[in-house]
Design brief:
Helices cover 79% and strands 0% of the residues. The chain is mostly helical and 326 residues long. The longest helix has 39 residues. The protein starts with a helix and ends with a helix. This is Peptide/nickel transport system permease protein.
Length: 326
């Protein structure tokens, strides 16, 4: 069943990636200006230099020709050259990708883990003071913009209290290795992970609490209470377990939004990840680099959703059965 689901998702992913590449290419080409214009504005140059750069970067060819050449290069796993960094795009992305993945995984673990736990705590006694308090608090937290929360965290914990570094992924020129470097990176990630994770923590909290409120009214919960099972066992073994399934689905859906949110957070905290790289590519009109970033992001989202689908099969065998019958 899992293999059937995996095969269908992978086949569908090919068409998704093709649509993303072609659609993004056409949208970027429709925007005014190109990399040569951005380069000339920043450095200056005459008409001869403009013509030379357009020929060197292939911008003197038609859109259809450039799209065909790009798709052909993708078949050979070649993302092309960055006009900004004068390096292979694959190398540039692989330098920044680990920082973005570290930020996303840490923020996801924080938001999903703590949000689910607080949702269980609130939903264990619907209508209680703690339920209302956490519900109102999560709603207020979800309404806060991520960039504003990041700036507040910087002012309080980095500027005023000076407990944590303002930004970056690690201390520059520190020559730390091993556990010392890992600890340094962890300290630098506290603020950006908190700013990115707290927003989605509120979402998972509210979803878990709402899911538990629905499960409390189901027949098997009433049967468990009639058998005399303890409230703690009913909450953990029956109510929370069944309310967790929608959160797993939301985990896959929120991966794209969290990746988009990392663009803002990386800019606020000066984290050298894909988000800041995309910002630099847009400023320089580096279309090949921006295409590579968007394609990499699409692949990440597809694989995250694929992992969520597989996890859902194990959590709810009915999903695997329906895939096998289809």
């Amino acid at each position: 069943m899992t293999l059937t689901l995996l095969r269908r998702r992978l086949v569908g992913s090919i068409f998704v990636l093709l649509t993303v590449v072609i659609g993004t290419f056409l949208l970027l080409e429709a925007a005014p200006g190109d990399a040569v214009d951005a380069y000339i504005v920043s450095t200056g140059g005459d008409a001869g230099m403009i013509e030379l750069l357009r020929h060197r970067w292939g911008l003197d060819q038609s859109e259809l020709t450039r799209l065909a050449n790009y798709l052909w290069a993708l078949l050979h796993l070649d993302l092309g050259q960055s006009v900004t960094f004068s390096r292979p795009i694959r190398d540039v992305i692989l330098e920044r990708l680990p920082n973005t993945l570290l930020l996303m995984v840490s923020a996801t673990a924080l938001s999903f883990g703590l949000g689910s736990a607080l949702g269980i705590y609130a939903g264990a006694r619907p209508g209680s003071f703690r339920d209302r308090f956490l519900s109102i608090g999560s709603l207020a937290l979800y309404a806060v913009p991520g960039f504003w929360l990041g700036l507040v965290l910087i002012v309080v914990f980095a500027v005023d209290l000076r407990w944590l570094p303002i930004g970056g992924i690690e201390t520059l020129a520190s020559d730390k290795t091993g556990l010392d470097r890992a600890a340094d990176i962890a300290i630098h990630l506290v603020l950006p992970v908190s700013a990115l994770g707290f927003i989605y923590l509120a979402l998972y909290l509210r979803m878990m609490r709402a899911g538990m409120a629905e499960v409390w009214r189901l027949d098997f919960v009433l049967a468990a209470r009639a058998k005399g099972l303890s409230r703690r066992r009913i909450v953990l073994a029956h109510v929370a377990r069944n309310a967790l399934l929608p959160l797993v689905t939301m985990l896959g859906l929120q991966s794209a939004q969290m990746l988009g949110g990392s663009v803002v957070i990386e800019s606020v905290f000066s984290v050298p990840g894909l988000g800041r790289l995309a910002q630099e590519a847009v400023a320089a009109r580096d279309t090949p680099l921006l295409l590579g970033i968007i394609l990499t992001s699409a692949v990440l989202v597809i694989f995250i959703n694929l992992a969520v689908d597989i996890a859902y099969v194990f959590l709810d065998p009915r999903v695997g059965a329906s895939e096998a019958d289809a």
